[in-house]
Structures
1.
Amino acid sequence: MKTKLPWLIPLAFLLWFLGSARMPADKEFSLNLFGSLPVVFNGRHQPLDSIARNALLALHGKQTANLEPWKGVLEGPRILSATEWLLTVMANPEVTDQWPLFRVDHPEVISLLGLPDKDREKQSDGKHYAWTQVASDRNFQLMQTNSAVAEEKKTEVRTPFDQAILRLNSAMTLYFRLKNSIQPQDAKDWAAELAALDLLIPPGIAAARASEAGRPYDTNALEALLRPVGRMQVMSRLEPPLVIPPQDPVRQPENWTRTGEALMSHIRGEPLPAAVSDYAAMVSAFRQGRGADFNQAVGRYHDRLQGAHSQEILKTSREQFFNHLAPFYKAMVIYVAAFLLAVCYWFNFSEWARRSAFGLIGFGFLIHTLGLLFRMWLEGRPPVTNLYSSAIFIGWGAIVLGMLLERFWRNSIGLVVASAIGFITLVIAHNLSLKEDTLQMMEAVLDTNFWLATHVVIVTLGYASTFVAGFLAMVYIVRGFFTKSLDVNTGRSLARMVYGIVCFATLFSFVGTVLGGIWADQSWGRFWGWDPKENGALIIVLWNAMILHARWGALVKDRGLMCMAIAGNIVTAWSWFGVNMLGIGLHSYGWMSGAFKWLALFVVSQLLLIAIGFLPPTLWRSNALKPTTR
Amino acid sequence: MLKPIIKLLTSLRLTVTLLALGVAVVFFGTLAQTSDGLYVAQSRYFRSWFSTWSPHTVPWIVVPLPGGYLLGTLLLVNLVSAHIQRFRFSWKKSGIFLTHLGIILLLLGQLFTDMFARESRMSFAEGEWRNYTEDFQKTELAVLTDASDRAYDSVVVIPESVLTARGETAHSSLPFKIRVREYYENALLRARAPFVDTNRPPASSEGVGARAVVDGRPPTREMDKRSMPALVAELIGSKGSLGTWLFSMVLDPQDVVVEGKTFRISLRDMRYYQPFSVRLLKTTHETYLGSTRAKNYQSRIRLEHPGGGGDREVDIYMNNPLRYSGLTFFQSQMGNELRDGSGRGTSVFQVVKNPSWIAPYVGCGLVAAGLVVQFLIHLVGFIRKKA
């Protein structure tokens, strides 16, 4: 009975996945269509939905907007989708200014800005604050001076306080930009104001010409025009997203502009782009709660984009769907479940648990792979383009290796290692996605699909396999020392797995590293420059080669092999993240600081396991290492 | 007596020790880059026989380390002697042979690169041409003897090694000798202040130096910055001393009149003259739409080689260098901040001469092939056994 229905749990997850794949239906307003509209920001075409999600991530680290963070989950706080939040920011910023969406963690920043502590009565959770709180007149000045000081400092000497100030400052700038992308932030009824503007232009321009020529002119007409001009100039100076598509998409497809700039050209005599009035109709209708009018305006604009911009529309609606699908997040959840099932097997040897785990990992892997392919398709790039995607790809490679190991040994070890690395790397990827747009364009020097497809992919597989070897070794030591479940056979098979994977890791990290050297020779003129990232990769190669030679020379037995493989985890984590924290060298495009604590924690945990590995076998609970008596 | 030594040199124990030390050296050499800068750290840890590392906040902790040269040499000896002594060729080990052969090639290639490769730069604005590249790490004293030809100047140059030796130099086309009084590897120049510097004599008796003072500084450690050397030299004509002069990279060339003839003297980046010239026609610096992120740096140049056959226009951009006459030109710097006052675009090429550039390509191929072969041999054996 026990081996029956191993597909039951995978099936449950499949149903969950399929159920959540459909976009939620719109209620009064066509938010889905609005969220799919293409704009240009961060140097690339993207849907408004992506801007909304990335902005919320930058503001408070989540892709939804919780308007009542002081309430517990069960109390049903009011939560908005990213797109609805963005639309409200663009249409009705007086309302969103009151929403507590700026996350401030650092106690010194909280006290500097005089923000309230956690207090349910005053509707404050002590972490999330509204624009009106962080950007009050007094605080706005404080933020300006403090961020200017932090900005002056070099990245490596910035304190956590400086970093918190800069983070909040850039979130505030971003919010400020978004408020000014479709209408000036103080507009009350933008569609009406826009219509009124057209009446001001001819007399205003005539007055301006007359004034320049030194003839008598209508002061009132000139002033009436200068007021909106000031607002437009502020709008374009803030550098909000480029929401207005090119007027001549055939000849100048790259000519996207900002609303403020389009209006300025209009005042100078150019025709007003239809997009400006369409967007104005949307925000006014939304602000006044006229659902039908809003939907009509969105539909009209969307139809207008068809034809000349059908490519962009297709791309951005795909990206919107990808955002909604969140395949890596779902794969992460599945890997946790699989991990638990796979560990179960070690304690009761239920084949059902092992097979369920295998099926579940297989399904998680399928979603993971689909996500990778979808991402590659969106970007038109090989799988790894930045630190974020390297995490996703390391997880993917580890799952492949783990499932292969499981095919041969069928003892659940491959599954545990695969699901553990899969889960951890996806968590890392999730945290990296809080830092920046994960589909960002490539810096000029990295802009070559050939090297991204060869060097980067291979070296990342090298990282993945070194981690697999290290995690296998962790299984050996944890099971051997803390449980009685490590028997002689399992111990031996683990040693063979580690050895095989280290061979594999040596191959990939070596070839990947040297290909990197060749790329460097092609683009910087030297094969090897002892740059930190190169050195990190070299250390992995040397370390793996050392393990192999120590094994061949019988200088270490199983336990020594395990300890060395665990140290491989440290070496790889250093190369992957540690060198980026040094913030030097040509490769330092992946700077990050908050992760330092986690890296240190990981290194300490690995050192502890190595220390345990050196304890005499008599202290181990399992008998795998004890000399067989009689 | 010899036997234990041979046994040690060919042992796997030595290999493992060397690889472990290699990890340590690379690790500390990387850490040191944060405080010493890439260039200093490179020569201290990798282009050396021995070194030590100390955390810069706790200088009494001293970790002794072997240098990159020592490790490379020992690894090479270990590898070669092990193959001579222990290894017997068999098809089962063919992958290991190939791998080790590739490693030897890589080690030797890196050694040759270290010895023979030369990095310099070529920098100019649109419309200008250059027939030389400049070495930003080295300095020379140049004396312009004849500027009458419109196309070419005649120059006598004195390399840095002569200047640092603080000796005396003469040249047949110069009617004076140059005696080095003081040479600063890195120096700060400033105008001699009326009340502050009353006790300090001026840097030199003649020229700009008569109104300036010089302070020596330790060489710079920042990666893309250069030390600014300064030189105080006495010029000695046929009738005796012509006074002392101050030369520096930050000063304009100075004219010295000797026996009715003008010589223009300057301290400058060391130049390597080429038989061809490169003219910068156009620079292109593109960014992604609505952002400051660089999308492309591209320089259009005209290569002119009278009698050399190379006379053409070429585009140089990221990942697309120009290889010509043993040199490789890489697009290195460009950008709005580099644009000079006239509004013309400027461009800097990294110019590399590396006769052994092919070694890593071949070495990498051999190692990769070797590892794949060995890996497949293992895998096939393993699957057969399992099946």
2.
Amino acid sequence: MFKNRTTIKVSGLNQERALNNISKKVKIFKFKREDEKHSQFEVEFKHTKQVKKLIEEQGLEIVSISHSGYFYKLKKAFLRYGIIAGIIISIIFYIVQFNLILKIDVRGGESVECQEIKNFVKENMNSNFKSSISTENLEIMIKNNFDYVSSVSVAIIGQSLLINLNPAVLPEEMEDDFQPLVSGYDGMITKINLIQGTLNVNEGDIVQKGDILVLPYTTDAEGKLYQVQPKAEIYADVWLTASSSHYDYKIVSLRTGNFVTDIEVLLGDLVIYTNNHDLIFEEYEVESHSKPLTKNLLLPLTLRKTIYFEIETEEIISNFDVEKPRIIEEARQKALIFLEENDIIIQESYFINEGAGCHIVNYTITINKNIGE
Amino acid sequence: MFNFFDEIKNKVTNFDHNLLNDYNIVNLSGKLLYVEGHQGVTVLSNETVAFKIKKGRVVVEGENFILNELTCNTLLLQGKINKVEIF
């Protein structure tokens, strides 16, 4: 039982000569002649390959090979059950490590502050097990220990501890660093009501986005400058413009409704599974989406779905006069996108640029609003 | 380490010890035959085993032979051993 042997059955003539040659290199056990042509013998398991080669060299035919002994059984069991055991061990390892926090991610602050908070959290975490981490306690501790954090949220996502910071913002008055009031829009100024600061524009002026409207200081009778927070209500006619084009002749691609989906499973960048199909479409568009299959960092499995949509091209010839109302409305709708809540439209207009086989409708919506907020 | 053939050598005086280096055969109760110094098996069957020695040939006859062990110069034969002839 403890001897690891291989039993080999051979057939052929002149077996004695073959046996003598084999026995010069390996030890032969329990040779038994079954008949004139057939016999069987044993060799040590470790010599199996060598003996097989020798037998073939001697011109004998191997009828069967069987193995016995603990080592062979162990090897067989390892091969048969090794993969299953490996998977089970991997699953156990996965489950254990899934319950650990492997990464602390701090967002929302300066890099130095983030590092400081990360170190603080590392020091104050009792263990890396998710179950032993109290996110509420961590939030309180961070808020109590860092003045520059106004609010914080701590969450466990996958194997990461995600800390989102809201840095404390000082009022501008306290910062003692006043910025000028600038225009947020392009427009023509219609009305000015200065509250504080020095005006830099007049009614009727055309300003662009970013232009300074009110400077952050005032001057007293002696000409001395005082820094102040600029404040004013400055109303202007603001033009919201958009355009839409029409081509008398164009080629468009339309999806036929046929599509093929390829799925790939990636481990990092390595493709470990794919069901790629042969594409039968002559013309197609491709859309690709990826989503993580696991939330942990040790097994970064990603599912990538690639969809190939069959398309067909179509020539479209159309008359601008017929399409005109639709193109104008299209341009209008584009301009309306820029309209904000409470904006009041005071005028709408459009003009058409005509080129070679092409018409461009420029639509303008005029509104009046406070541009100095 | 104990060596069966060395022990025998030591027991015999006025004997050419070099002769013991040719071949040695031990028959154990007619059930096992141990051979040292053979120069190749020439016949192997259930009833007959023959092998070469330095200056001749040995033929073993019997029944139910199994060649229990075979190396380049030793062999161990198991079975009912009826006759061992040296030619």
